[in-house]
Design a protein that fits this description.
The complex is a heterotrimer of chains A (about 280), B (about 290) and C (about 425).
Chain A: H1 6-33, H2 54-63, H3 74-105, H4 111-119, H5 130-139, H6 146-154, H7 158-169, H8 172-180, H9 185-196, H10 198-213, H11 217-222, H12 231-239, H13 248-281
Helix pairs in contact in A: 1-13, 2-13, 3-6, 3-7, 3-10, 10-13, 12-13
Chain B: H1 12-38, E1 41-43, E2 50-52, H2 56-63, H3 65-98, H4 100-110, H5 118-128, H6 135-142, H7 153-181, H8 185-193, H9 198-209, H10 211-228, H11 230-236, H12 248-258, H13 262-293
Antiparallel strand pairs in B: 1-2
Helix pairs in contact in B: 1-13, 2-13, 3-7, 3-10, 5-7, 5-11, 7-10, 8-9, 10-13, 12-13
Chain C: H1 2-12, E1 24-29, H2 33-49, E2 54-59, H3 63-75, E3 82-86, H4 90-95, H5 103-109, H6 121-124, E4 137-142, E5 144-149, H7 150-156, H8 165-177, E6 182-186, H9 189-200, H10 207-211, H11 224-236, H12 252-256, E7 260-266, H13 270-276, E8 281-284, E9 302-308, H14 314-327, H15 330-340, H16 347-355, H17 358-361, H18 367-372, H19 389-404, H20 410-431
The chains are: A mainly alpha (about 280), B mainly alpha (about 290), C alpha/beta (about 425).
C-alpha cells in the first residue's frame, strides 16, 4: 500500500462487493431457480431465495433430463462435452506449437505461403461457414463422432498466432547455446521452447477448453445419435420445445451442472491464465 | 517475422506444419472457398438447381437498406459492449489493485461469467427480464417501469448489450488487473510523494501504462461483440423486435441456416470474412510493432 | 481434394459412427420435452409390434434446426428417411422434387394399403398437390383457438366467452377495468392474426389460391379488412386491451399467470396450460370479425408433417410405409391427440376419442377439430403455400412489431410486409426454376 487512506480502501471494497453482486446475480438466480419445482417457476414474482427441490431437480437432471425424453441424463452429455473440449484444446495447442515452431525457426520455401494460409483463418467463427463445413465432415464420414465434433473447430489460427508471438520474444542466444551443445531442432523444441511456453499453453488451454465447451450450433448439426449430444447444445434445445413451456427448474439445474467444469478450469488456472496471456501481449 | 538465428533447410518444417495445414485446408479453406463460390450462385435449399449469377447477391445485399442498417447497428452494439464491459472491469480492477490482499478472492468470484456459454448467458438474462415472469422486470415494475423488450427495440438492444458485456467483464478484469499489478510500484510511490492523489495517479501513470493492454482488449472485445455474441442474440431476441437487435453475424445465421437463402447468406459471410481479415491485419500490424519495440 | 477426402475417410473410418443396419429407419423430429418422450414411445411401440423394421427417432432441435439439419444432411447424402417439417416449410419441401418422396407414392410402391378418405380434409388439404396427391404425412397438427380465464371472466363480469371481435373488445375492457393488466394477447402472430384470420374470414393471403396453383404469387394480406383489424388492435394496446408478448409461444406465461384474461394460440398448448394455470381455463373458437363476414369459414392448421426423403433402400421405404400405417391408426392417433392436444388426423381417431368419452371428460378439447371442419375448405381456407415462408414470417413479425410499438401504422406496416414478402417470393422462384 502506497499510502494509508482508510476511506478509499473501504470504498474499494464496497465498489468491488457491489460489482460482484451485480456480476454474480444471474448465477445466484440460476441456483435459486434450480431449487424450486416447475410450477413455482411460472408464478409471479419469482423467488429470490432457494427452495427445497434442489435434490429432486438434481436427480431429474442427472438421471432423466428433459431433452427429447432421451431418458439419458446430463452425465453422458457432460462427458461428451468434456471429451470435445479437451480434444479441441489439446489438439489445437499441439498442432499450433508445431506450426509456430516451423514458421519462426525455419527458413524454407513457401514459408510465407503457409503462414498466410494459417493466418487468414484467424477469428472467423464456424457459424459463417457452417453448411459447407458440414458437407466436408459428412463426406469424411465423421458425423456422430468425437473427431467430427472437435477437428473442424481446431481449424483456426488464434493459438498459432499466440505461440508465434511467444517464440519471437525468446532470446536468440538460447538457440545459439543449444546449437553449441549440439541439440537438434526437435530437441531444442522439447527441451527449451516447450518449457518456456508453459504459461502460454496453460492460458490457451483455458481459452480453448471454454471455447470448445460452449459450442452449440456445430454439435447440434453433426450429432444425431443421442449418445453424442453435448450439454450446452441440450440446454439450448430445452429452451425451445415446440408448443410447450420451458421447464426452468431443470434447465437451470442443467445450466449449473454445465457451468461447473469450465468454472473449475478457470478458477484453478486463473493465475497461469493471466500470466500466459499478459506475457505475450505486453 | 523470422528469427535472425534459425535452423537450416531440411524437411522438418514441412512435417511440422503438415497437421495444421491439412486441417486448415480441409476444414477451413475448402469450406470457405465453397462459401465464396456459393456467394455467386442462386441456389435452392437442397442444392438441386443452381444458377451462376456473378455478383448479383452482393448487389442485392448492398442495395438493401436493412442490411446497411444492420451494419450500423452492429457497430453501435460492438462499441457499447466493448466500452461497457471494459469500463466496468477497469473500475473493478483499479479497486482490486488497491486491496491486493483480497484481490484473489474477488477475482475468483468475478471470473464465473467467463465460463458461461453465450447461449446460456442469453437464457439467464432473458429469464431475469422476461416481461411477465422476470425477477428484474418485477423489480422494475415496483418503480413504475414497465419493461417489455419484446416490444421495445431500445430495451431489447439494452438487454443484449448487458448480457454480452456481462459475459466479458471477467476476462477484461483479469487482464486489467494483471497489467496494473505489473506496473513498478516505485513509479506510483514517486508520484504519491509528489503529492498526486489516487485519481490523478490513475489518470497520469496507470492508465497510460496499461494502454497496450487496453488496446489489446479493445480488439478482443470488438471481435467478441462482432462474432461471438451470436448465441446471445439468438436466445434473447432472435434479432427482434422489428430488426432492432439484428447484428451481422446473426443475419448470416438467420438467412442461411433458418431462411435457407444460401447464396445471400454466403455473400454476407464473404463480407464478414473481409472484415475479419481487415481486423486481423490491423491487430497484427500493431502487435508486430510492440513486439519489435520490446 | 477428392483424393484427400478418400485418404482421410479411410484413415478416420475406424473411429466414425456406425453405419445403418439395413432395416433401420431414421426419423428426425423436433419434439422436445414431454412430447419427445411420446415420440419415443410411438417408435418403441412400433418396434415392439413387429420384428422387421426399427424406427430410430432423433431429436434435432426446434423446427427450423430440424429442417436445416435434414437439408444439410441431404446435401451431404446423409439424410434420414423421415423428417418432421413444420407447415411453413411445405413449399420449400415441395419444390425439392428430386429430394422428396411423396408419401402417397411411398405407400403405393411399398404395396401398403392407404385410404386417403379417412383423413380430415382440413388437415390433409394443406399438404396435397393440386392433383390431390398427398405429399407428407400429417403428424402433429393444431390450430389456433381462443383460450380464456373463466375466473377472470367471473370477476370482471364477462358473461360468456367472446364470439366476435366486438365481444373481444368488450370483454377486454371489462377485464382491464377489473384490474387485469391486459385483456388479451396472442403468439405466432403471423399464423394466428394473418394466416388464420384470413382463412377464418375466407380472405386470400396471396394470389393463385394462396400459392396452391403456382409459385408466381403475390401477397394480398395487406387488404383493408386485415389492416382495419390490426389497426384496431394496435389502438387497443394503448389501453392495455391487447399486450404483445413475443413472436412464438412466449406469451403463454402472460395467460397462465393471469396477467391477460384471454390468449389466442395453438390448441396444442393444452398440456402446458393444464399444468401451469391455477384457474378455471377454457378454450373456444376464434372470434369472428362481423365487419368482414357474419359467419366463420374454417381455420387452417399449423404444426408439422412427416416428409420422406429419397436416397435410401427400397426395403427401408417398406419400413417407412409400415410405420406410416401404424402412425395413422385410430389407436395411436387418438392417444397422441388426447395426450398432446394436437388434433387427430383421421376421422376414425376422432370417433374413437368420442366413444372413449374424452371430450366429455375434457370439455373444450374438441374446439380445434370443430374449427377446422366447420365448413368445407375454400380456395382461401385450405392452407397456404409460399416459398421462403420461414423468412417471410420473420418479415411479418418484424413489421407487426413495428405496428405494435407504434413506429408504423397498420396500413404502412402491412404494405411493407407484403412488399418485402413479394421480394422473397420472387427470390424463391428464381432459386427453384
Amino acid at each position: 500500500m502506497i499510502e494509508n487512506r482508510p476511506f478509499i480502501t473501504f470504498l474499494s471494497h464496497a465498489v468491488l462487493i457491489l460489482g460482484i453482486a451485480i456480476i454474480a446475480f444471474p448465477i445466484w438466480i440460476t441456483f435459486v431457480a434450480a431449487t424450486h419445482d416447475a410450477v413455482r417457476m411460472v408464478q409471479v414474482p419469482l423467488p429470490l431465495l432457494p427452495g427445497d427441490q434442489f435434490f429432486a431437480n438434481l436427480d431429474q437432471a442427472l438421471n432423466k433430463g428433459i431433452s427429447g425424453g432421451s431418458n439419458s441424463g446430463v452425465g453422458m452429455m457432460i462427458f461428451n462435452s468434456l471429451v470435445m473440449a479437451l480434444m479441441i484444446a489439446i489438439g489445437k495447442i499441439a498442432i499450433s506449437l508445431l506450426s509456430a515452431f516451423a514458421i519462426v525457426y525455419f527458413r524454407f520455401p513457401f514459408r510465407m505461403g503457409f503462414f498466410w494460409m494459417i493466418f487468414i483463418t484467424l477469428m472467423l467463427p464456424v457459424e459463417v461457414r457452417i453448411i459447407p463445413t458440414f458437407e466436408v465432415v459428412a463426406n469424411l464420414n465423421m458425423l456422430n463422432s468425437y473427431w467430427g465434433l472437435s477437428i473442424p473447430l481446431i481449424a483456426s489460427a488464434t493459438a498459432t498466432f499466440m505461440f508465434r508471438q511467444t517464440f519471437l520474444t525468446i532470446p536468440d542466444e538460447l538457440l545459439e547455446a543449444a546449437r553449441i551443445d549440439g541439440a537438434g531442432a526437435m530437441r531444442f523444441f522439447f527441451d527449451i521452447l516447450l518449457p518456456m511456453s508453459r504459461t502460454n499453453i496453460a492460458a490457451l488451454f483455458v481459452i480453448l477448453f471454454i471455447y470448445g465447451w460452449n459450442q452449440y450450433l456445430w454439435p447440434l448439426l453433426i450429432t444425431t445419435d443421442q449418445s453424442m449430444f453435448t450439454v450446452v447444445m441440450s440446454i439450448k434445445q430445452m429452451l425451445e420445445t415446440a408448443e410447450q413451456a420451458p421447464e426452468w427448474n431443470i434447465i437451470m439445474m442443467t445450466t449449473l451442472l454445465a457451468m461447473l467444469p469450465p468454472v473449475v478450469v478457470v478458477v484453478f488456472m486463473q493465475k497461469l491464465f493471466v500470466k500466459g496471456l499478459t506475457e505475450t501481449e505486453k | 517475422m523470422l528469427k535472425q538465428v534459425h535452423f537450416g533447410p531440411s524437411y522438418i518444417p514441412y512435417l511440422l506444419v503438415t497437421p495444421q495445414i491439412l486441417i486448415t485446408l480441409v476444414f477451413f479453406i475448402w469450406p470457405a472457398g465453397h462459401a465464396l463460390y456459393q456467394s455467386l450462385l442462386i441456389e435452392d435449399a437442397f442444392g438441386l438447381s443452381s444458377e451462376f449469377v456473378w455478383f448479383e447477391n452482393f448487389e442485392v445485399l448492398f442495395a438493401d437498406e436493412h442490411y446497411l442498417g444492420t451494419f450500423k447497428r452492429t457497430i453501435f452494439f460492438s462499441v457499447l459492449v466493448a466500452s461497457i464491459s471494459m469500463g466496468f472491469s477497469l473500475i473493478l480492477a483499479a479497486m482490486a489493485d488497491r486491496v491486493i490482499k483480497a484481490a484473489m478472492v474477488y477475482r475468483t468470484l468475478l471470473i464465473w461469467p467467463y465460463a458461461v456459454a453465450p447461449v446460456v448467458a442469453g437464457a439467464l438474462w432473458v429469464f431475469m427480464f422476461d416481461p411477465t415472469l422476470g425477477i428484474l422486470t418485477y423489480g422494475l415494475s415496483m418503480f413504475g417501469y414497465d419493461w417489455n423488450h419484446k416490444l421495445n427495440g431500445n430495451e431489447a438492444m439494452a438487454l443484449v448489450i448487458i448480457a454480452a458485456a456481462w459475459k466479458q467483464v471477467a476476462y477484461n478484469f483479469l487482464f486489467f488487473l494483471a497489467a496494473m499489478q505489473s506496473i513498478p510500484k516505485s513509479l506510483i510511490e514517486a508520484a504519491a510523494i509528489d503529492g498526486a492523489g489516487p485519481v490523478r495517479r490513475f489518470a497520469t501513470i496507470v492508465f497510460p501504462l496499461i494502454s497496450p493492454t487496453t488496446f489489446f482488449l479493445l480488439v478482443v472485445n470488438i471481435v467478441y461483440a462482432f462474432f461471438d455474441t451470436f448465441g446471445i442474440v439468438h436466445t434473447i431476441t432472435q434479432g427482434g423486435p422489428a430488426k432492432a437487435t439484428e447484428i451481422l453475424v446473426y443475419k448470416v445465421y438467420n438467412d442461411g441456416f433458418v431462411g435457407l437463402d444460401l447464396g445471400g447468406s454466403a455473400a454476407q459471410s464473404v463480407v464478414l470474412m473481409a472484415i475479419v481479415i481487415a481486423l486481423t491485419v490491423i491487430q497484427f500490424r500493431y502487435i508486430e510493432k510492440t513486439v519489435e519495440y520490446s | 481434394m477428392k483424393l484427400l477426402n478418400t485418404i482421410l475417410a479411410v484413415a478416420l473410418s475406424g473411429f466414425a459412427a456406425s453405419t445403418m443396419a439395413a432395416t433401420e429407419v431414421q426419423w428426425w423430429h423436433a419434439m422436445g420435452g414431454v412430447n419427445g418422450e411420446r415420440v419415443n414411445k410411438i417408435a418403441d411401440d412400433f418396434n415392439a409390434s413387429q420384428a422387421d423394421y426399427k424406427i430410430v427417432p432423433s431429436y434435432k432441435g426446434n423446427y427450423t434446426e430440424t429442417m436445416t439439419a435434414a437439408i444439410a444432411a441431404f446435401r451431404a447424402k446423409e439424410q434420414p428417411h423421415i423428417v418432421q417439417v413444420f407447415e411453413v416449410g411445405t413449399a420449400t419441401m415441395m419444390a425439392a422434387k428430386g429430394a422428396v418422396y411423396p408419401v402417397e407414392q411411398v405407400m403405393k410402391d411399398a404395396g401398403e394399403p392407404f385410404d386417403k378418405s379417412i383423413f380430415l380434409p382440413a388437415v390433409i388439404s394443406y399438404y396435397q398437390t393440386s392433383e390431390g396427391e398427398l405429399l407428407s404425412m400429417p403428424f402433429n397438427s393444431s390450430t389456433p383457438v381462443l383460450w380464456y380465464n373463466n375466473d377472470a371472466f367471473k370477476k370482471a363480469g364477462v358473461e360468456s366467452p367472446p364470439k366476435t371481435w366486438d365481444d373481444m373488445k368488450d370483454a377486454s375492457e371489462k377485464l382491464v377495468a377489473a384490474g387485469y393488466k391486459c385483456g388479451f394477447s396472442f403468439g405466432w402472430q403471423s399464423w394466428v392474426m394473418i394466416e388464420n384470420y384470413s382463412s377464418w374470414h375466407d380472405l386470400a393471403v396471396g394470389t393463385k389460391e394462396n400459392g396452391f396453383t403456382g409459385t408466381d404469387t403475390n401477397f394480398t394480406f395487406n387488404n383493408d379488412h386485415v389492416k382495419a383489424r390490426i389497426g384496431s388492435i394496435a389502438d387497443w394496446s394503448k389501453d392495455n386491451l391487447f399486450k404483445y408478448g413475443g413472436r412464438r409461444g412466449d406469451s403463454l406465461s402472460m395467460y397462465t399467470t393471469g396477467e391477460c384474461g384471454m390468449w389466442m394460440n395453438s390448441s396444442a398448448y393444452y398440456g402446458s396450460v393444464k399444468k401451469q394455470a391455477e384457474f378455471d381455463f377454457g378454450q373456444t373458437m376464434l372470434p369472428v370479425d362481423t365487419d368482414v363476414r357474419a359467419e366463420a369459414q374454417n381455420s387452417i392448421i399449423g404444426g408439422a408433417t412427416l416428409w420422406v426423403l429419397r436416397g435410401g433402400e427400397d426395403s427401408e421405404y417398406k419400413g417407412v410405409a409400415k410405420f406410416m400405417t401404424y402412425l395413422s391408426s385410430p389407436e395411436v392417433q387418438a392417444w397422441w391427440h388426447q395426450e398432446t392436444g394436437y388434433v387427430p388426423i383421421t376421422t376414425p381417431a376422432y370417433e374413437l376419442s368420442k366413444t372413449q368419452g374424452f371430450y366429455d371428460a375434457n370439455p373444450g378439447t374438441d374446439t380445434a377439430i370443430k374449427q377446422l371442419s366447420l365448413n368445407t375448405p375454400t380456395a382461401n381456407s385450405r392452407g397456404i403455400r409460399f416459398g421462403n415462408f420461414v423468412q417471410i414470417r420473420d418479415v411479418i413479425n418484424e413489421e407487426m412489431e413495428a405496428i405494435w410499438n407504434g413506429s408504423k401504422t397498420a396500413a404502412q406496416g402491412l404494405d411493407d410486409a407484403a412488399e418485402r414478402g413479394d421480394t422473397l417470393l420472387r427470390k424463391f422462384d428464381r432459386a427453384n426454376k
